[in-house]
Input
Amino acid sequence: MLTRNDSATRDICDRIRELLDGADRYEAIKEITRSFLGTKKLSEDRYIFGFWVPGAKDGYIRDYLDSVYLELLTPKDRTAIVTDKESEIAFDIDRIHLDAVDDYMVVVLDGVPAGSKDKFGLFYWVKVSLPSFEGYIRDPLAVSLPFGVYAPAELFDIDSMLSERRDRDYFTTHYDMRFDDGSYRAKDIGMCLEIHTETATPEGSIAGLTRRYKKIAGIMRDNEEAGKPLTDGLNAKDLNWIGFDTIELMPEVPTSERQEITGKTGEFFIISDESDREITVTLKRPDISNWGYDTPVLGSAAVSPSILETLRPNEMLEFIETIHTMPGRPIQLCIDSVLGHCDFQGAFLLETYDREPVVPRDPKYIHSHYLSGHNMYGRDIDFSHPNVRAMLIELLRRKIDLGYDCIRVDGAQDFIKGRDEETGLRIQDDVFLRELVSVEQNICGIRRRLDINLEDGRPWPDDLNWMYNSKYLDHSIEMTLPGGIVPKQWSPIIFAHNVHGKFKWFMEKWDRFVEVYRYGQHWITGQSNHDNARYFYKMVSSIPSIEYSPGTPYSEYHNDQLGKNKKEIVHNAMDHNALSGLMLAFLPGHPMFLLNSLVHTPWMFLRDIDDTYSVVILAGEGAKFFEWYVDRSVFERGDNFPGVKAFGFNRYEDLMMPVNSRKSGFLNRLYELSSRVKTDAVAVRYLFETPKEAGRYSSVNELKAEAERIISSRKGEEISDRESKADMARKLLNKNRRVFIREREYLSEFLSRENLNDKLLETSQISQTVEDLKLQIEKIDYLLELTDRSLSSLLEHASNIDAYDLDSWARDPILNSLASERLKENGLISPRKLKAFARTFMRDARDACKVHKYEDALDQERVAFNYALRTFRTEHDWLKANPTNDIRRDYFARKLFINGAKDIGDWGDKGDNLNCNTIYYGWRTAPDDSSQIFFIANMEGKPIDSCPLDLFLNLSGEWKVALSSPSIGKLPRVIDRSFRLKNFRNGEVLVLEKIGTDSIFRRDVHRPPRRA
Output
């Protein structure tokens, strides 16, 4: 029976007061958060329930604390099995008042039924009854959310679960170093396999991953006992899963949910009947489909219930135990932490009541002490608030104590403390970021510091050329952590925009590879990740390189030498023999590979939670996804796209037509509609540029006439009385006025140049005449004279031209001509059905990306080669460190190999870059002189009939073939400089290892003689 322990509650309150009276308030807040917030087990059935409630001391909610109480829901049948079908479950209700201290509300309860592997615990939240609003204060630190983020959290006995873990010995035997204080440092992330749980197995669950690895481990253990090689009997399907140092799971935290949420209980926990003592709830197993980055932050210490078959946290622990105890050597686990930004739905879940709640419930403006303004993802997190900082630190601590080995911090540039007043650039809060990632792990009393890697693109998104201006290495060094640990940073060649299917990509990115070679030991490198695989279809041109037009940038074409069709090109780019060889057998750093890319599955941005934006997301993603990843054979598989086909799109051509076709498919037309939608920047340009560019108005008089019409039509409208929205509008308006002023200054300065003449205008990138430029100035002058209200109306109108408007899209005649009848009502596309189609498409796309569907078609030689590369890296672990500056020991170069390219003449620096090959080559030597390797790869270009090694290998002696692309064929066992590679094709790689030793390994040979 649940009872309130008044004495223990008073003791907790006294301790909180004592801490707050101390000298360092921030340290006090961190201790309070760690010891008393969320749920904390005191004894077998005694728990603390604690919440931060801003305003409890002196805010709006202070006057209503009598209507704020802890609501506890205990299922009458704690062993109830939840299925995909809806089921009604009865709960007993207990409502208990909490004690308030400052802005904290706590209570200690006895007789608390906690959850375990076999039973549900009670569910809890704080209910808030205000005069005009009823809401909930949820537990951001919850470790179990079996029915999603909108449902109450489950009290789960995490302490008992962790005390029984089976991999305890792993933590004291598998580590990088031990510090003087007795704590351990986890090993480097090393070679990493990125896994998206939903698409990795047929079940799409953590339990499915565990079963897959247990099966592989079973075969390996049998081999170990029989004295056979560990991989004996493993097939190509299995090899893609092993040989890595670490598995990185794409975010497995609870995500935002479907439907338009208004702050109630969500889709999977629906209260159908309620009395004073009992409640009936309709439950359903959560089935959110997402690639993981749409997180509301709340509940990030838990695992998404959509990927838990049992809805129990034990499922993740069992997976960790399984890979930590793999035969041969354990596999580490890395989590992808998303704590730098918050999905819009986080505003509903993290609302605070120190102010009166506002209506309507727009998540951009809902008040929360956890959140600040909105951004491209949703809402910014208020890192300036000490309670928010403490909550994030504790979220991560409770997460990693499950037993993870590494952390990837997503969007480290999003940890913002302010903006520079002069430049407007964001200022990162590196002090807090360092504190966050320095959190120590505790595994059954074993203290450990994890390996940290930061995905940090700063100054992005403030900077136009962020890929070249990003700090990369500088940031890794300045973020040095306790114990002298340098965190990993994503390298210049692994960020999203690096899509190596672009024409001449390896030739033009050479300087970035040199950076990795020289500095890369603290960098995440690699062949593929979730962003590379998605941005391929977002950023790689549809135009093949065979259609190259002289003078245009190479990046406006894709490298058609990678395959016979687009699907083959994307898979050969994302699983590129030469690039894999370069990353694993030569360059320093820590290479990452996406499982879906290794198996050659489709891949896309997966998100079925949207209602408002579901169609525009489909429009921006669907056609390009089909163009590169889904050809007719993939679409026509019986187990692919059943929902889309049920909507009446049974033929591939109904959805997609070739890019150069005069006809359109349904997805093609949606993409055309989405490409017209303006960003804020384009809306500003729309007002003053010429129609030849992004502008609308060809004269000042035309602009004035339209402005007068728009402004007069808006007379009498009230300005929003929501303070936060008005603030945002003013900031945007001030920003736009500054844009107009800067543009006017630039144009005036340009027109005043003495050397401005016809010749300059002809050769300049600015193609307008002098009259056009003067006209732009006139239009800007007129815009700057307008009042704030008038200019706002004009900017809003500009933004709405071709904007995303579902009703107008549904009336589009071309889209209607391509739509199936099942999308229509009364002869026109129904917006409601269009939304339903978008959700169905996302679910079908997720299932089309599932790995098991494509494993039977794996190229066994290719898989074996990739596994051999990983084995080579393990055996030559020194490769991950930076090389020396001694070119006889370590050397890396690029050669633009002629290969029959035309001689375009002269003794100058001109060359035929179009027809040449890009060859990367070099050698590296082990620090202890035990090994020397030579690497050469045809990174791009046509086959080389005869490639003489003596042009590249400047070291003497005999070399054995360590690795070679399967397509190269049989090679001699021993090779020297005189050897010629025949028919050396695009993407092929050869790795040699020195036989024996000679003077190259004797360091003193190359030193100058000592002077007398």
Notes: The CA atoms of residues 722 and 856 lie 58 Å apart. Residues 723-751 form the longest helix (29 residues). The radius of gyration is 31 Å.
